């Protein structure tokens, strides 16, 4: 979702008078709900079974009535391709996908397997099929974006105040969650990083974030951090933030640390220094797409015969791309990012 926002901006720039609408499932709608380049946002609930069939039939009729001139399917899944077809738009653009490519009037090749090419560039290919003169993307001119939500920022300020945190505190956000086991850096490794970053800095507070499903994992990181010397009260856990609140928290922080995940890309929409940890994926494809002048550090295991992988089966069986990553390397990157940011602010 976040990585489609440069394309939205580029289409608006090329077609300033067009009506642009975006269809999104409810769980990630916050990413583009206030996007300044869109005229309409259609939000559909993420349902299952017969309820989903009913919802999709009603949605298909609604989209068809809108009489769109062109539709770009940036997802490529079965649901999005069927809805693209249902619009009846004379121009329907999507990737060449076995069994579904016929639903599009213009198809864009996307070779299977790894390519050293950023995901934003893959999305851009689709827009270029509609607008051949659109040019090529650059993170300097077309970074990812997610506007601030004032209500979420106020909720966050209130919550921090209740936790005893004020403007005198330096916040570091450490996102410990991951969508699958292939991107889960060990809790003990996160704990060593948190303990190191919290020590010797009395005004520093570390806030551990994750989704609700990873709350127990995140609490374990806090517990292990305290056993390794993190000062009592310096670490807080927030596993119930919505996407807008998470973005507001990162924007308030002096540093974000986390794995290659959705929250890392949300963090990339702020100017906050970042340290992103990569296991089976690579920063070439999934790196934060933002202005190169912003402080961004990446840490990975380097070249391995099995890396990158499709995250279905760990070929060696030991998740070495993650377990070989030493906490000391992440701590060094974090300290370097903070110093680089401080130096840039002071001239």
Can you describe this structure in just a few lines?
The protein is an alpha/beta fold and 347 residues long.
Describe this structure in words.
It is built from 12 helices and 11 strands. The protein is of the alpha/beta class and 347 residues long. The protein has 2 domains: 129 residues, Glycogen Phosphorylase B (Rossmann fold, 3-Layer(aba) Sandwich), CATH 3.40.50.2000; 191 residues, Glycogen Phosphorylase B (Rossmann fold). The strands form 3 sheets. The chain has a 6-stranded parallel β-sheet with strand order 8-7-6-9-10-11, with helices on both faces. The protein has a 3-stranded parallel β-sheet with strand order 3-4-5, sandwiched between helices. Strands 1-2 form a two-stranded parallel ribbon. The radius of gyration is 21 Å and the shape is globular. The protein starts with a helix and ends with a helix.
Q: Give the mean pLDDT.
A: 94
- Structurally, the number of domains stands at 2
> Which regions have little confidence, pLDDT < 50, spanning 5+ residues?
none
Distance between the termini: 35 Å
Structural class: alpha/beta
The fraction of residues in strands falls at 5-15%
Spatial sequence of strands, sheet with the most strands: 8-7-6-9-10-11
Largest sheet: 6 strands, parallel
Helical segment tally? 12
Number of strands: 11
What is the H level of CATH, i.e. the homologous superfamily of the largest domain? Answer: Glycogen Phosphorylase B
**H/E element order:** HEEHEHEEHHEHEHEHEHEHEHH
User: What CATH architecture of the largest domain do you see?
Assistant: 3-Layer(aba) Sandwich
CA-based shape: globular
Radius of gyration: 21 Å
Helix fraction bin: 25-40%
* CATH topology label of the largest domain: Rossmann fold
Just give the CATH class of the largest domain: Alpha Beta
